[in-house]
Amino acid sequence: MTTVQEPKFTNFDDNDQKPVGFGRMLRKEDPRFLRGRGRYTDDVQLPGMLHLAILRAPFAHARIVSVDTSAAEASPGVKLVVTGAMLAEKGLAWMPTLSNDVQAVLATDKVRFQGQEVAFVVADDRYAARDALELIDVEYDVLEPVVDARRALEAGAPLIRDDLTDKADNHVFDWETGDEAATEAVFANADVVVVEDIVYPRVHPAPMETCGAVADFDSIDGKLRLWSTTQAPHAHRTLYAIVAGIPEHKIQVIAPDIGGGFGNKVPIYPGYVCAIVGSILTGKPVKWMEDRSENLISTGFARDYIMRGEIAATRDGKILAIRTNVLADHGAFNGTAAPVKYPAGFFGVFTGSYDIEAAYCKMTAVYTNKAPGGVAYACSFRITEAVYLVERIVDCLAHELDMDPAELRLKNFIQPEQFPYETKTGWVYDSGDYEPTMRLAMDMAGYADLRREQAEKRARGELMGIGIAFFTEAVGAGPRKDMDILGLGMADGCELRIHPTGKAVVRLSVQTQGQGHETTFAQIIAEEIGIPPADIEVVHGDTDQTPFGLGTYGSRSTPVSGAAAALVARKVRDKAQLIASAMLEVSVADLDWAKGSFVVKGDPGKSVTIQDIAMRAHGAGDLPDGVEGGLEAQICYNPSNLTYPHGAYICVVDIDPGTAQVKVRRFIAVDDCGARINPMIIEGQVHGGLTDGVGMALMEMIAFDEDGNCLGASLMDYLIPTALEVPDWETGFTVTPSPHHPIGAKGVGESATVGSPPAIVNAVVDALKPFGVRHADMPLTPSRVWDAMRGQATPPI
Amino acid sequence: MQVPAPFEYERATSVDQAIGLLERLGSSARLVAGGHSLLPMMKLRLANFEYLIDINPLHAELGYVKIQTDEVRIGALTRHRELLESDELAAAFPIFRDAERVIADPVVRNRGTLGGSLCQADPSEDLSAVCTTLDARCVIRGSAGERVVSMEEFHVGPYETAVGDDEILVEVRFPRRGGHGSAYEKVERRAGDWAVVSAGAAVWITEGRIVDARVGLAAVGPNTTGIPEISDTLRGNAPSEALYEQAGAIAARSCDPSTDQRGSADYKRHLADELTRRTLRKAVERARS
Ligand SMILES: Cc1cc2nc3c(=O)[nH]c(=O)nc-3n(C[C@H](O)[C@H](O)[C@H](O)COP(=O)(O)OP(=O)(O)OC[C@H]3O[C@@H](n4cnc5c(N)ncnc54)[C@H](O)[C@@H]3O)c2cc1C
Predict the structure, then answer these.
(1) Can you list the domains of chain B with their CATH numbers?
(2) Which part of the chain is the FAD-binding PCMH-type domain (chain B) (predicted)?
(3) Confidence band of B223 (pLDDT split at 50, 70, 90)
């Protein structure tokens, strides 16, 4: 069942509501952030703490001839200087990546990207550590770099990974999905085939807070405490145990407040390991915080897919098949964070929201002399790339058929009765009802009027574009039979304890980086057990305090941990019902649940509240036979499928024909993320993601020069959008619950980042239609738009 | 956090004392005004100085906008924000408010100064283009006294000016003439970004004819570019679209942009043309109203 919202814009009138359960309420965590009382990794101060700074490679590809640290060691305040060679002696020079590759902690043989870690200094303060870096003398033998992924597999291309004994070239993996022959057959007989080369350039998550850690190793009890900027504290703890050989129960990973993740804080970075080594060797707590440039040049990037999209259709606009060939640039080490069986993440959903006959994808991934990662940036494991590809190529088809892009999409949607729907690449979409979502977006936009306005403007030589994107995401990884990261299944634990006075504490395995977990999860528990959110403490981020689980990324918190929270609350409620039956002296079957209390059927005057029950559970009175004292439960939730949110986005742009500057005039985003827990938080997630989308579509790109120098090393060079580049967002929603999720929620953290870039690019390309433009690659900076207007659009790489 | 190399810091108590310090410390010392150009470079360790002499305490002495009948005088420590907010300045030279609206962001504008902008001599710097457009004169003071130089003399090259190691830029002077109109336009990839290209135009019109006109461009060459050929072409003529077009063509041909992340050289040339026409059109409209 899909519920459709009345076409109206966001309203905040109900903001001061205090829902016991779902509904709009202000975020519980905000008072501490607004008053400057957040506690981030860099706020952690420990007695005797030292500071660590990392020396990074100035070249993209160079052999290390020698490293002389003597002057640095003699520098005032310096306690320790460590090189790759020293780590190698301890067997710590290399560490596993999240994709079963290895990555250098400190380079021993070669540096393989500009900004790679070469040595570190630990000193009394940040300044002394940084000053000493300048005194380390590294002699390099500069090698030819591989900068262009297209050239990585050419004969004679420099070999990047000569550390791997079985590698003779720069090939990482080949991957395919779908049915090649069946797809070819459909293409061969189709009326219309459109082919377009589409690049999704390398971008960076650029969280406000850079990455960092404070390591505190206690040599007496052998315990390591690590505060770090991590989106996955439990997974990190297990990996540290495996890499560093410290027993897992002696490691406590604490993710304090995190200033934005976006996937950037999923991997384990060399800096974290360096901080641990530094603390072990000095016997003191050691802090490492990277600076802005270090974050931009060395940590997990995103995208970098060079795609050829092909679409086959009938003359009247029935889409028959989609095919794509992808060249994926994975940088110097394959550090992609994705479930092991999914080297290309969930790119397999590139068939989008359309009911088609066949699909096929062939992908090749290569090493280049660029930073590793490819992890995320709010991408739902590469769904960003997949959705961009399909939504762009469908628009190319509309262009070719001279058909309205909205009409083309409406004609090809998977129909509501087809769900659960198995795509031609094997994904089972849980639920969806696409047309009402699309129609709502079109109503909100005033689509027909916009097209009329556009026609008038075109006649006057003005450039106005309307872009549509319709996406289906696959989020909430994932079923443990299919999905693990380095052998760790992607199920999430959750614990709920009700105190005697009826207040509660819920312990989550996932960790918030701004998504508002402390509010959303309190509301989930409140909805299930009737305790007000204000009375529920949400504990997260500390591995000693919380049950195991894989962390927050890929929009998985609500689909996986949210389900765990609902189910653990139901487990507690079941026990509460037993106690209530004893208290009210009726059978369990004679009790009705009325959010917050059990009421005797047919006798509304007889009831006990959850608070009464909690006191009885901990009190001295009798409990029913076989029922233990206390009111608490724990659970580990293994999702049976992913959840598949969808959305319809419409963007309106105006382009100055003289300067080619793009102005995003309006943006309408209708999201269907299933059940809506806190609409305000959902809107916040959407607003942020849309802003991200404007950045990627119009200005962001991590570029390199031919020597492999990173050209995006500061926020002056790597542009991220400000409030002035974005319009007043117009958000709406439909609700199609997930059938397998206990509360029907689907996840929304990345929807807008996934869905907005194609809407914006489609709008720009639509505006340029008078110039015959069918495609132009991001980032659509004024200069690149001007090129497109002159028929000279070029790929950005 | 990016951390600079060690340096010593002293607050200036007067212009002469600051000059004395500069003389004594030589090229190892630098003045810091708003710090919005100098400090980022020091934090990135692109520039290391042993001594910083903070001239912010001299704001009372060097921060002013004086509107006189024949001249406007602006103190070197006048902040972007003060230039933006001065209604008198906007009335005398509308180009200033146009430009200040698109320079950086409020945080930078609260501290950054006219003197710092000019002395930084970044080829993309906006106020240099404004000063070039308005034919400004820079007053430079050293222990031997003051000298006054034109913008052409002031800019020696990218990041290089006529101000010596032991000198201070104290004031910038702008001649006033009747029938004035001026305007500034900038194309940027994002608010607060440095210019892809920007252009300023100023005209002086009497009895329907252009008595004088100047165009200044930023980000299209080694230094902010004033183009005498445009002035020669416009002078003596009645303003017209055809004339703006001619001026635009000269701007495109005379500038020397390079291709970078902000745009291709071709595009920048196109912008030099487009923005020259736009600003001249607006300057003339303003002169007439
Ligand atoms: C994020 C950001 C965005 C920006 N965007 C723009 C933009 O769009 N357009 C633009 O034009 N600018 C921009 N700027 C630069 C900004 O305008 C700077 O403030 C300005 O360029 C320098 O002024 P300042 O007072 O901060 O100089 P400082 O940084 O203090 O000094 C710069 C140089 O000038 C010297 N100096 C300063 N005052 C004097 C003096 N009186 N005599 C002699 N030497 C002196 C200093 O020694 C130093 O070498 C931006 C800066 C930032 C940080």
Answers:
(1) 8-58 (3.30.43.10), 59-175 (3.30.465.10), 180-288 (3.30.390.50)
(2) 2-179
(3) low
